[in-house]
Structure formats: C-alpha cells, structure tokens
Amino acid sequence: MVGSAGVGKTSILLRHNGQGFVTKISPTVGCSFITSHTKCEDREVELQIWDPAGQECYRSLIPQFTRNAVAAVLVFDLTDKTSFQDLPFWIEEVRRNSVDHDIPFFILANKCDLTEKVAVSDVEIAALCEKYCAPFHFTSALSGKGIHTGIVAIAKNLLAHHEKERAEEAKKAEALKLEKAGETSSVKKYRGCCVVS
C-alpha cells in the first residue's frame, strides 16, 4: 500500500484490521504490515498488506517492500489534489522496482466522508484509473465506508488472477508433456530403425 504521507494508509489498515479509527496517529516510520484473512467466494484469502512510510525521506526503502509484491494498492486523499497528482510517481516507482512489471494496481480514494472539501473530480479519477487499468474504491478510514468492500474486491481480483495463472501453467505443462511424449516416440522409432538396418 503506497501513497503520499498523510493520505490515511495506516488508518485504512487499522480500520480494516478491526482496530477502529485513531484520531492521533504517528506517521509511519520505515514500514509496518498486517496479515489479513478475507473470505472470498467461499475461500479464505490471506493478504499481507505492507504499509511503507510515504514521507520523502523514506522513499529509498520502497524498493524493498515492492520488489516481490503481487499487487499494489495506491491511496490518495480526496481533499488533497497533490496526493492524487503523485499517483503516477508511485505507479512508476512500484513498476520500476517490482519483479513483475505488469503488477496490478488498485486505487483507494480516501477521506470520502469530507464531501465539502473534495479537491479531485470523479472525471479526473476515472481518467487516471483508465490510463493505468486500475479499479478504484472510495473509502473513509473515519467511518469505515468502502474499506472492507475495497479490500474484498482486491482479494477477489488477485484470486481470479492467481487461478488464471495456474490454469495457464497447467496448459503449458500439458503441452510440454505432450511435446516430450512426441519426442520420445520419435526417438524410439529412430532407434528401432537403426537396429533394423
């Protein structure tokens, strides 16, 4: 989970983890994480959600936490346009440092409860999400709105992606098995031919 400092990443994690909303929360130093068990289509999905600090002085640590990530959750503050404008930076940072350069992105538009202070339009959000093929959810760490729904949607997407990868790997393994079986039978024929001659 990445995004600029103060957008509510830690508050979202605490809320998702059942700890409610904490009004005075210290900025994340380095990185923290939670393990979350989410029910998805009659299956339990375990998510390890990492929360690296968003402050600029900690950005050099980001590669350590994104290298082996299977997805990236980007968080911005709906009342802070700069945090939204920083999302392309975070996307490129994750892509550049991730083993999987096609890593899926998910966007959480946090602080949706502050409707009178919203600084980012739905049109801007939709354009960014379309550009990066990233689904998004409105969330509020204060009220809890959208957090569970967003995390479950992310888990469902990752589960579907994992199932698709497993099916593709099984197909490749079967094709390789058939290919090797074909080589074996042609080798046997060749050997049989040589013995006969």
UniProtKB/TrEMBL annotation:
User: Do the record's keywords include Nucleotide-binding?
Assistant: yes
Concerning Gene3D superfamilies, the annotation shows: P-loop containing nucleotide triphosphate hydrolases (3.40.50.300)
> What InterPro entries does the annotation carry?
P-loop_NTPase (IPR027417), Small_GTP-bd (IPR005225), Small_GTPase (IPR001806)
Q: What Pfam families does the entry give?
A: Ras
Tagged with keyword Nucleotide-binding: yes
* PROSITE patterns to which the protein is assigned, alphabetical: RAB, RAS
Q: CDD domains in the record, alphabetically? A: Rab
* Entries under SMART domains matching the protein: RAB, RAS, RHO
Entries under SUPFAM superfamilies matching the protein: P-loop containing nucleoside triphosphate hydrolases (SSF52540)
Q: Sorted alphabetically, which keywords does the UniProt record give?
A: Nucleotide-binding
* Gene Ontology MF term list: GTP binding; GTPase activity
- Protein family: Belongs to the small GTPase superfamily. Rab family.
**Protein known as:** Uncharacterized protein
Q: Which organism is it from?
A: Steinernema carpocapsae (Entomopathogenic nematode)
